[in-house]
Amino acid sequence: MALKATIFKAALQVNDLDRHYYQQHALTLARHPSETGERLMVRVLAFALHAGPELEFGKGISSEEPALWQRDATGLIELIIELGLPDEQLLRRACGRARDVVVYTYGGRTVTHWWEKASPSLAKQNNLRVFEIAPQTTAALAALADRNMTLQCLIADGEAQILSGEHLVPVALTRRNP
Questions:
Q1: Residue 1 domain flag
Q2: What is the structure's pLDDT at 2?
Q3: Please, are residues 84 and 131 in contact by the beta-carbon 8 Å criterion?
Q4: What is the mean pLDDT of residues 16-40?
Q5: What is the pTM of this model?
Q6: Is residue 135 a contact partner of residue 126, using CB atoms and an 8 Å limit?
Q7: CATH number for the domain harbouring residue 63
Q8: Residue 99's domain spans which residues?
Q9: Full strand arrangement of the beta sheet holding 173-175
Q10: Number of separate domains in the chain
Q11: How far is CA 57 from CA 2, 36, 71, in A?
């Protein structure tokens, strides 16, 4: 018998001073049995960093949909967000489909190896931004994972923090491409 997804609920308050976006979001996340707490929380972080009324989660790990995406009123894809170390071909295809594509990589040294291999074929994609999330950030975020979470994300001057109760996680991002 196949294992079922575990449902996580997050009350996420986003205070983005850079974009002047202040909104409460009630998120329901299905955690696939093969998904780690780290990836689950990276999905929440990516949502917080790009929060907006049209941003939505994809169908999950086992689907062809991106981790998150945003479509305009006509159905055209404005933004695709991928997580981890996605295939270069998938990213090139995403760049052809969407106005902007953002990748949040994580995993320490494996990111460097992935980027060395992928960067030559992705260099021509002008609408692609690749960021690496520091291992200490993803580990601290994973420690916040709970079936019922209350989180706040504060974004100011290009820097972000995630707060949960008394825990504060500064988000360390490094841009991998120009």
A1: no
A2: 66
A3: no
A4: 95
A5: 0.95
A6: no
A7: 3.10.640.10
A8: 6-175
A9: 55-57, 68-71, 77-83, 100-105, 128-133, 173-175
A10: 1
A11: 23, 16, 12
